[in-house]
Backbone:
């Protein structure tokens, strides 16, 4: 990785607004690498991981276009901890390798690693500090149900697979509260961006 460009982690629970926050940083000239996007890349039709998944779980998980049936796989791994562990052992090293390659390409003043499982997967080790987009668990539940049309039970299962809110906040260096409007979030990000640039300039990270 290119050590000359500091990398900060950007994380938060499902429905917290990580994607919106990343876009606001990007508007300020900050390049980011999205771990979720890389997780999709490693299971594209031409990737060996997709064949491994089909061999392990059955070819019914691949649709007529050769694409992974994500919703079906999600149901399997949330119902079966052993299946979840197997999938993580397959995908996490592949995602980590891609992450390191892409982060090394981030230009100054700094880059962002956007990941919902930043702490859970040890990806925070690739950063100089972590920013958390924080909302209440009720807000997570409401927003995710509205966005993904999932049941409350499904959303709670995803939330339980992620680090508890309090632990995430304890491990983070900076906090963005996203209970209000997008304009409010954008204002917080503009202020934090100035702070980060100052820390980098002063070499006081």
Residues:
């Amino acid at each position: 990785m290119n050590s000359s460009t500091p990398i900060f982690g950007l994380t938060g629970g499902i429905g917290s607004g990580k994607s919106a926050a990343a876009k606001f940083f990007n508007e300020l000239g900050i390049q980011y690498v999205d771990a979720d996007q890389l997780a999709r890349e490693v299971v594209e039709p031409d990737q060996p991981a997709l064949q491994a998944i089909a061999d392990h779980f059955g070819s019914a998980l691949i649709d007529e276009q050769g694409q992974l049936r994500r919703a079906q796989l999600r149901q399997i791994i949330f119902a079966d901890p052993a299946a979840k562990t197997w999938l993580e052992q397959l995908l996490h090293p592949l995602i980590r390798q891609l992450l390191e390659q892409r982060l090394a390409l981030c230009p100054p003043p700094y880059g962002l690693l956007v990941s919902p499982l930043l702490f859970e997967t040890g990806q925070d080790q690739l950063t100089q500090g972590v920013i958390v987009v924080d909302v209440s668990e009720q807000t997570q539940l409401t927003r995710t149900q509205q966005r993904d049309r999932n049941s409350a039970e499904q959303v709670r299962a995803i939330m339980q697979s992620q680090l508890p809110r309090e632990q995430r906040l304890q491990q983070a260096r900076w906090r963005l509260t996203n209970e209000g409007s997008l304009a409010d979030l954008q204002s917080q990000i503009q202020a934090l961006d100035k702070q980060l640039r100052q820390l980098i300039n002063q070499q006081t990270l």
